[in-house]
Amino acid sequence: MAKWFASEMAERVTSQALQIHGGHGYTKDFAIERYWRDARLTKIFEGTSEIPFANHLGPTARPPAGRAALSTIPTALDCMAIAGDSLAVDAKFQNLTGADNYFEDFKVGDIYEHSRGKTVGEIDNVMVTNLVMNTAQSHFNEHLMAASPLKHRIVFGGVTAALVIGLAMQDTGENAVNELGLDKLRLKTPVFHGDTLYAFSEVLSKEPVADDADCGEVRFRHWGINQNGAIVCEVERRAAVRRRPAKLAAKP
């Protein structure tokens, strides 16, 4: 879902940028043409944008009244339209999330060891560092860092934190409806290209959301370790998490 949403939005934004610049947008005098090509590629590699929704919606999905019929395999835009119209395929979208990560399922003191690891590549670090215009050369100048005590480029802390939180999202964020805040971020150990990160989470507290009976606030502590077991990052995160819908059976 994250890959689909990011690739769709990237193409939409870069296409609008091309439109604004007119014919100049296609020239190499501007970086827009390259950004558009890169964004378009993200809809193709590692599975096209249509595949996840074709698997879940299938060819039997029906459009709301007044909307043209979908193709046999719905496109990503078809799926966005369906979701926006709250069509009766909600049960199929439900299958995209877990059944045990609603507000009621989190217990204070619970600790999660998340199943996936992520080996940090050069593209993760250098591309994001440059995109956010971080000018610290320790993240992208290997020649400079070769003369330093660390000997190699270190991964931008924002990338490390994002990867650790991202690894925790399947268990703690699938039913989050709003991210409320991050606090107490600490980067404990340098991360280098080729390191593999794993994530853990602890439920610190839970409380109702005053103006929304459909969700509650959960505060997590996330931390990540490298392949040697050293803690690389710690952060606290607050999220508004959806309560279990009444139509779904309660968790035993």
Strand order of the largest sheet: 1-3-4-5-2
Mean of all residue-level pLDDT scores: 77
Total E-strand runs: 5
Q: Secondary-structure element sequence?
A: HHHHHEHHHEEEE
Distance between the termini: 28 Å
Topology:
Blueprint: H1 2-21, H2 32-42, H3 50-57, H4 76-84, H5 90-94, E1 111-119, H6 122-131, H7 142-146, H8 157-172, E2 176-187, E3 196-209, E4 212-225, E5 231-242
Antiparallel strand pairs: 1-3, 2-5, 3-4, 4-5
Helix pairs in contact: 1-2
Mind explaining what this structure looks like?
The chain contains 8 helices and 5 strands; from the N terminus they run αααααβαααββββ. It has 2 domains: 2-94, no CATH class; 103-242, Roll (Thiol Ester Dehydrase, Chain A), CATH 3.10.129. The longest helix is centred in the first third of the chain and has 20 residues, at 2-21. With 252 residues, the chain is an alpha+beta fold. Helix content is 33%, strand content 24%. Strands 1-3-4-5-2 form a 5-stranded antiparallel sheet, covered by helices on one side. Strand 3 (196-209) and strand 4 (212-225) form a beta hairpin. The model is unreliable at 56-80 and 82-94 (pLDDT under 50).
